[in-house]
Structures are given as structure tokens and as C-alpha cells.
Specification:
The chain is of the alpha+beta class. It has helices at about 25, 35-50, 115-120, and strands at about 10-15, 60-70, 75-85, 90-95, 100-115. It has a 5-stranded antiparallel beta sheet. Strand 3 (about 75-85) and strand 4 form a beta hairpin. The mean pLDDT is about 90.
């Protein structure tokens, strides 16, 4: 049985800052610090994890909007909380933190879609 899709679902994702996810490696800066694109990808991963138990094998979620701030340069651990559900639209309030402080925050929206129908539109 699938879990009910409702406000309050949470998901997490973690990574360690490595050469491959730094601003220098991602082309988003010239320093060896956690890259903003890497932080956004991790936020999306946490959002996906939050709804994974609610989706059947024919469904998935797709990201449609990200509005974040990247407030500090550091390593990551993050928690994502689902704050609203409007039909197929999911709105997440997201925070990112390392062991010492919050390093980012924002809003991320996703929509639940049928995989086959979604991919058929690309052809």
C-alpha cells in the first residue's frame, strides 16, 4: 500500500563535499567549496525521497521551480519538508545545513506525472 500524499511528509539527502561537487568542478565559481548547483541537486533529491513512498511504479515527480539562497560555503546535510499539496503540485520548504549552521534555504516545487505520458510528449 502506498503512503498517503499529504502535507508534513519529509525527506532527507546527504553528501560529503568532494572535488566533484565543488564550485570549481561544476563551473559555478573558482573555489573548492560546495557548489550551488550541487546544493540544488541535493535539495531535489531530498524532495524526491519525501514522496517516493507515495508514488506507484507508473508515476514520478518532476521539478518545475526552485527559489533558494545559498548563504554559506560548507559541507552538507539537509532536510526537506513537504509544506503543501495542491493536486499533483508539491511545494517544499527546504533547508540545508552542515554540522554547525544553516547554509541554504528556499522553496522547491514538483509535479506528479505519469512517466509514460510525460516521455511521450518529448517525441
Amino acid at each position: 500500500m502506498l503512503q498517503e500524499l499529504k502535507p508534513g511528509l519529509t525527506g532527507t539527502a546527504e553528501t560529503v563535499v568532494r572535488e566533484t561537487n565543488t564550485a570549481l568542478a561544476m563551473g559555478s565559481g573558482s573555489l573548492h567549496v560546495f557548489a550551488t548547483p550541487s546544493m540544488i541537486a541535493l535539495m531535489e533529491q531530498a524532495a524526491c525521497n519525501a514522496v517516493a513512498a507515495c508514488l506507484d511504479e507508473k508515476s514520478t515527480s518532476v521539478g518545475t521551480f526552485v527559489n533558494i539562497t545559498h548563504d554559506a560555503a560548507t559541507g552538507m546535510g539537509k532536510k526537506v519538508t513537504l509544506t503543501a499539496v495542491e493536486g499533483r503540485k508539491l511545494v517544499f520548504e527546504i533547508t540545508a545545513a552542515d554540522e554547525d549552521k544553516q547554509i541554504g534555504k528556499g522553496t522547491h516545487e514538483r509535479f506528479i506525472v505519469n512517466k509514460e505520458k510525460f516521455m511521450a510528449k518529448l517525441g
